[in-house]
TrEMBL record, chain A:
The modification 4-aspartylphosphate is found at residue 46. It comes from the Bacteria. Residues 137-202 form the HTH luxR-type domain. SUPFAM superfamilies: C-terminal effector domain of the bipartite response regulators (SSF46894), CheY-like (SSF52172). Keywords: DNA-binding, Phosphoprotein. SMART domains: HTH_LUXR (SM00421), REC (SM00448). Residues 1-111 form the Response regulatory domain. The keyword RNA-binding does not apply. GO terms for biological process: phosphorelay signal transduction system; regulation of DNA-templated transcription. Pfam families: GerE, Response_reg. It comes from Actinorugispora endophytica. One of its GO terms (molecular function) is DNA binding. This is LuxR family two component transcriptional regulator.
From TrEMBL, chain B:
This is Phage shock protein C (PspC) family protein. Residues 1-55 form the Phage shock protein PspC N-terminal domain. The keyword Transferase applies. SUPFAM superfamilies: ATPase domain of HSP90 chaperone/DNA topoisomerase II/histidine kinase (SSF55874). It comes from Actinorugispora endophytica.
């Protein structure tokens, strides 16, 4: 789902061999329509979509069909956009400069139920959960564990999941578990710092 | 003859007169004060204040028009009147006045009401003075508290003056009919003119908004032209060289991104933008894309500056020798230290095999970090890529 036709056909050409593309759309209304018609495993979603943005698509689709998975894709580096779609239910975020092979990998991984964190998203999440003096409302959700933090930092340093696993002497599966748990915390945490941080970033 | 601008006490008449006659301003002021006792001095002063233009500013008017807004502020501060001197003169005048009254001088209330009226008139007319016309444009009469207070005070003084004058001339009751007529006429005119004036004000506001919008659009167009269009032209011309095309596209993307998402003010004072700038420079020089992720931020001190230089060296090495098409940089600002990681998945090298006289790694990275109290670790092996880890404790300036 992207409002630039040129970009859509480019992506189609790049990933067409690896996955089956069942539909595409250029704005929120047609995206919701195409998704409910085609019932795809995974939706590749642009953050900036005319008619309310990717967040709106997530809200309208996930309310009825929570099993559909979303991977957000954006040219925007604005943190509040990225955090916004991930909190809205996307299971990963990649930038549009990603190569076709990597994108296909990410798509397969998200379709399998894992989370895909690019280094940049890992950086944003670390920033969002940065230690503050304010006591957490819900310690379970509002804090990252030491291990999760380590995993995120390695991802931010440019490590692939496999390399993270090797570095920390854990299995790739465990890395994926940690990342999924970070994702869950990001989506469920109501920690006010998260929203306040996003607001502060909006000024940038 | 000009009225003084920088050395004025009230309207600059005293200093202007003094300069014109070649005498000390104190003498001119005292002379005016002495004349004022009879009332003539005040009339002279007010007339000169109205008629004589303010001394033109030394600086070039064209430049002044350009940065009027910023200039207006600094100028207001610079040309501020010397209040203490002004107070001294007022006190002197008051003292003289009291003496004059006590020792049988003719206190003609009529004169004072004339003075009130003239003062109010001056304040009102001052608003339309030539020298202040630029202030009219940037800050109209009714905009801002100062404008309102000034206008209100002027109107009040004029009214006091007129009514007082009439009252003491024993003509108030005769004038009442005329006054009523005048007020009725004025209200009528106001009623007729009000919609037109309001329309005029709105029109002007609209015009101003339009102008600002046009300026913004022009600025945006200029920026797009200078950057994006220029790069697209270059890309078309270099179409046969994919590496160069990619480099151009990356450089432009970075520039546009920083223009869109970053405030220009903090471009070089804190870690995160500085690290991105370093990466951009290395990328531009060596043509290898560098992905920067930065968590947290803090001001830069000497230690962090050294860290940035070491990071630059590491990025240059990775771009030149690793033989990869991407380098990852991760900067993290922790409560008590700053960490920078520069990583590539390229050729790697045998650290022990690097000759001792090679300055790159030992001098520019490890040595530099250690000199500033930090540390550098290099993890590498042939075929396994390289990661340079830099740590620097945060100094007191960065907290």
């Amino acid at each position: 789902m992207d409002d630039h036709r040129l970009f859509r056909s480019g992506v189609r050409g790049e990933i067409g061999d690896a996955v089956e593309v069942v539909g595409e759309a250029g704005d929120v209304d047609s995206a919701v329509h195409v998704i409910s018609e085609q019932q795809p495993d995974l939706v590749l979603l642009d953050v900036h979509l005319p008619g309310g943005g990717g967040v709106e698509v997530l809200r309208r689709v996930l309310a009825r069909r929570p099993e559909i998975r979303f991977l957000a894709l954006s040219v925007s580096d604005a943190a509040e956009d990225v955090i916004g779609v991930v909190r809205g239910g996307a299971r990963g975020y990649v930038t549009k400069t990603i190569s076709g092979k990597e994108l296909a990998n990410a798509i397969v991984r998200v379709a399998d139920g894992d989370a895909v964190f690019s280094p940049r998203l890992a950086g944003f999440v670390l920033d969002a959960f940065a230690a503050t003096d304010a006591p957490p409302v819900d310690p379970e959700l509002d804090r990252l564990t030491q291990r999760e933090r380590e995993v995120l930092r390695l991802i931010a340093r440019g490590y692939a999941y496999k390399e993270v696993a090797k570095e920390l002497f854990i299995s790739v599966k465990t890395v994926e578990t940690h990342v999924s748990s970070v994702l869950r915390k990001l989506q469920l945490s109501n920690r006010h710092e998260l929203s306040r941080w996003a607001t502060a970033r909006k000024l940038v | 003859m000009y009225r003084g601008r920088d050395d004025r006490l009230f309207a600059g008449v005293g200093s202007g007169l003094a300069r014109h006659l070649g005498i000390d301003p104190v003498v001119a002021r005292l002379a005016l004060l002495a004349l004022s006792i009879g009332g003539i001095g005040i009339a002279v002063y007010l007339t000169l204040a109205l008629v004589v233009p303010v001394e033109p500013e030394a600086r070039d008017e064209a430049a002044a028009a350009g940065d009027q807004a910023a200039d207006g502020r600094t100028r207001a501060r610079r040309k501020g009147r010397d209040l203490s001197q002004l107070l001294a003169y007022v006190a002197l005048a008051a003292g003289l006045g009291v003496l004059f009254l006590l020792f049988g001088g003719v206190f003609d209330p009529l004169l004072w009401f004339l003075v009130f009226g003239a003062l109010g008139g001056t304040i009102l007319w001052q608003q339309a003075n030539v020298a202040q016309r630029d202030e009219w444009v940037t800050a109209p009469v009714f905009r801002g508290r100062k404008g309102w207070v000034r206008t209100g005070a002027g109107v009040l003084l004029v009214i006091i003056g007129v009514i007082g004058f009439l009252a003491f001339q024993q003509q108030l009751h005769e004038a009442r009919a005329g006054l009523t007529f005048a007020i009725a006429l004025l209200s009528g005119i106001a009623l007729i003119a009000a919609p037109w004036i309001i329309g005029l004000v709105r029109e002007r506001d609209k015009e101003r908004r339009e102008r600002i919008r046009n300026q913004e659009r022009a600025e945006l167009a200029a920026h797009i032209h200078d950057s994006v269009l220029h790069t697209l032209t270059l890309i078309q011309r270099r179409a046969e060289d994919p590496r160069e095309v990619q480099r151009l596209a990356r450089v432009q993307e970075r520039a546009l991104r920083s223009w869109l998402y970053q405030r220009p003010a903090d471009a070089e004072t804190t870690v995160s933008p500085a690290l991105e700038r370093v990466a951009a420079e290395v990328e531009e020089a060596h043509g290898v894309p560098i992905e920067v992720v930065c968590v947290g931020d803090c001001p830069i001190d000497d230690g962090i500056r050294a860290t940035l230089q070491a990071a630059r060296e590491a990025m240059v090495n990775a771009s030149k020798y690793a033989g990869v098409d991407a380098v990852s940089v991760f900067g993290e600002v922790e409560p008590d230290e700053v960490l920078v990681f520069v990583r590539d998945r390229g050729a790697g090298f045998d650290l022990d095999a690097v000759p001792a006289d090679r300055m790159g790694v030992r001098g520019s990275i490890i040595g530099r970090m250690e000199r500033h109290g930090g540390g550098a670790r290099i993890r590498t092996a042939p075929g396994e890529g390289t990661e340079v880890q830099l740590t620097m404790p945060r100094g007191p300036e960065t907290r």
